[in-house]
Amino acid sequence: MSSSRILVVDDEADIRGLLSEILTDEGYEVEAAPDAASARRAVLHQEPDLVLLDIWMPDTDGITLLREWSEKNLLKFPVVMLSGHGTVETAVEATRLGAFDFVEKPLSIAKLLRTVTRALESGQRRRQKQRTLIPPLVAPVGKSRLMQRLREIALRHTDLATATAATIRVKLLKIGAAVIRNTRRIRILLASYHPLRDIYFIAANALASP
């Protein structure tokens, strides 16, 4: 089983180095970013399991970056805010934007590690919940080859909830020509996904397009 990946975002080299060393010793895979621009690139390159985000940075502060990730629907990982000059208002705003917790500097290593553990567990529970997309009572139950393939794609491609119509079309086309002849069943399957209820017609239209 691979270790959890943690992104440390802090403009202070000493803090980045210390946190990277401690977390690596704890068995985590760690990447460090000195500023918001580097953090953006790191998240887009490979989504972390957790971000430790400093609030006060010279170019873009942590609250602004957190808000940006939230507004762009990129906040699919827990974020723990770090600050040596935090206020109640800042903590409230960070929580409102989706931060998991708020840890003050100077850091208590024991407290930080406890927070890291809780944040990772929370992120894991959320991912598991998101994977459970098809309720048992509405999942395809037929034994035909088509229905078996529908179940396979439903279980494999849990990223359909955020896929574009073009991506959905490509994935569904891979099942074979039989799927195209059963667009109504595709509609029913996609409609059973809670996250897909707003886009399943788009998928059906994409299937119907040349």
Could you walk me through the main structural features you see in this protein, from its secondary elements to its overall organization?
The protein has helices spanning 13-25, 36-45, 62-71, 88-96, 109-131, 145-156, 165-173, 177-180, 183-191, 200-208; strands spanning 5-9, 29-33, 50-54, 79-83, 101-104. With 210 residues, it is α/β, with parallel strands linked by helices. It folds into 2 domains: 5-131, Response regulator (Rossmann fold); 145-208, no CATH class. Helix 4 links the parallel strand 4 (79-83) and strand 5. Helix 9 packs antiparallel against helix 10 (200-208).
Summarize the structure in short:
This protein is α/β, with parallel strands linked by helices and 210 residues long.
Helical fraction equals 40-55%
The pLDDT mean sits at 75
The oligomeric state of the chains shown is single chain
Helix count? 10
What would you call the shape? globular
SSE order in H/E notation? EHEHEHEHEHHHHHH
For the largest sheet, list the strands in their spatial order: 2-1-3-4-5
Q: Segments where pLDDT lies below 50 for 5+ residues?
A: 134-140, 157-210
**Any idea what the CATH superfamily of the largest domain is called?**
Response regulator
User: Total number of β-strand segments?
Assistant: 5
Instruction: Work out the radius of gyration.
Output: 21 Å
Number of domains: 2
CATH architecture of the largest domain: 3-Layer(aba) Sandwich
Alpha-beta classification: alpha/beta
Biggest β-sheet description: 5 strands, parallel
